[in-house]
Design goal:
Layout: H1 5-24, H2 34-47, H3 56-74
Helix pairs in contact: 1-2, 1-3, 2-3
């Protein structure tokens, strides 16, 4: 099960803003940029089976946590 396209389109800008915020706390020479962080989190979320989100806010919270995991893995 992937992420529904209308849901992703409606939250993309907010996810980029959250990614930029999360990256602001990282070292200056970090190689990931906000767009890449959002895309990597998307790939991980899309690869999960059974991803069912209660609503838009729930999806954003799960995606934000996944971006944090990407940053941890990247470190």
């Amino acid at each position: 099960m992937g992420i529904p396209e209308p849901l992703l389109a409606s939250v993309y800008n907010e996810l980029r803003r959250l990614a930029a915020y999360q990256l602001s706390g990282e070292r200056r020479d970090h190689t990931l940029q906000a767009t890449a962080l959002v895309h990597e989190a998307y790939l991980r979320l899309a690869g999960q089976s059974g991803g069912q989100w209660q609503d838009r806010l729930h999806f954003i919270r799960v995606a934000s946590e996944m971006m944090r995991r990407v940053l941890v893995d990247h470190a």
